[in-house]
Write a structure and sequence with these properties.
Order of helices and strands: HHHHEHEHEHEEHEHEHEHEEHEE
Structural class: alpha/beta
Low-confidence stretches: 48-58
Strand content: 15-25%
Number of domains: 3
Distance between the termini: 62 Å
CATH class of the largest domain: Alpha Beta
Largest sheet: 6 strands, parallel
Number of strands: 12
Mean pLDDT: 91
Length: 336
């Protein structure tokens, strides 16, 4: 497949200039633009397909790449992004990666080859350096990341301070009198498990390995199955941290099905503050990230560059979550 880099080498320009020429940008001269277009056509690059879309007034397209929308967390983010992008007069093309790195590469390449005006890339990958380097070398189309596990100086990046969120959850349980604390999560949430362990150790609390449960399964089934497994032990924790709310909700059902009560027998806290959290029984205590604000900032940063190609400032934004106290954690001392 012909890439922008191939065209740039023949034209004797950088990849950014090629991208601007094929997007009909006004900040390069017409002669250079026409020469690049001619080279692209001769190499068989999909310029005509992109141009045809523009002639049909299919302008204002933003790509959104997201792991999935099965969970309420990601569906909330995508809904906010779609609403704010529509407010700008643009519409979305959305691709779902199922947390697979090859799918992330595929959608990034497909979107910039399709001629979108910008991309918002949501990822939980632990290392995006190779993907981002390839993107930077092939296009100048604005890209904004929503990525918990990535640090980059090349692209705008927004994240919720996940470590602080886990710390809030565990230290709230400790203040509520809990010392025997367990954790349940899926493998994709292992960074939260690592923080959980660190917070426990920093508070000089022992971690019972039987109370640490991790599965390849996800969502409520993950929480239900892992909690059922933990409940087979003679000795049980007084409180559980679910890696995210869907897992916590599954754990609560398992506890109830065993004939025990939340929070009287076992307290449960989650992370993300999904919509159902305040309607579940008991209402779930959780850590809430400012998801709406995160979506608004992502769109604002993207369109700053979409509307002004000369704006080059890179921003890394970290937002702090907050504790939402409800009814799933029992106070077992008077010092909270």
């Amino acid at each position: 497949m012909v890439t922008l880099k191939d065209i740039a080498e023949i034209a004797g320009v950088n990849v950014s200039t090629v991208s601007k020429a094929l997007r009909d940008s006004s900040d390069i001269n017409e002669e250079t633009k026409l020469r690049i277009i001619k080279i692209a056509q001769e190499l068989g690059y999909k310029y005509e397909a992109v141009k045809k879309k523009r002639l049909n007034n299919e302008l204002g397209t933003i790509g959104v790449i997201c792991p999935e929308i099965t969970s309420n967390y990601y569906s909330q983010i995508v809904s906010i992004l779609e609403e704010k992008i529509k407010d700008e007069g643009y519409f979305c093309i959305i691709g779902f990666t199922n947390f697979e790195k090859e799918s992330e590469k595929y959608y990034l390449k497909s979107l910039y080859n399709a001629g979108v005006q910008g991309i918002i890339f949501i990822s939980e990958s632990l290392d995006l350096s190779d993907i981002l380097t390839e993107y930077k070398n092939n296009t100048s189309i604005p890209l904004v990341l929503i990525a918990q596990n990535t640090d980059t100086q090349d692209f705008d990046c927004i994240k919720i301070d996940d470590e602080y969120g886990v710390k809030l959850a565990v230290e709230y349980l400790i203040r509520s009198g809990h010392k025997d604390i367990g954790y349940i999560g899926d493998e994709l949430s292992n960074p939260r498990l690592e923080t959980f362990m660190n917070v426990m150790h920093s508070n000089k609390l022992k971690v019972n390995k039987k109370w640490i449960q991790v599965s390849e399964e996800r969502f409520e089934k993950c929480g239900y199955d892992l909690m059922c497994n933990m409940l087979k032990n003679d000795e049980l924790p007084t409180a559980i941290l679910g890696a995210y709310d869907d897992i916590a909700i599954g754990a609560i059902k398992a506890i109830h099905d065993k004939g025990l009560n939340v929070p009287d027998n076992i307290s449960v806290i989650g992370i993300d503050n999904v919509r159902i959290a305040s309607y579940y029984s008991p209402e779930l205590t959780t850590i809430a990230g400012p998801i709406e604000e995160m979506g608004k900032i992502a769109v604002k940063l993207l369109f700053k560059k979409v509307k002004d190609p000369n704006y080059k400032v890179i921003q890394n934004v970290k937002l702090s979550p907050m504790l939402i106290e409800r009814k799933s954690v029992k106070l077992i001392n008077q010092n909270a």
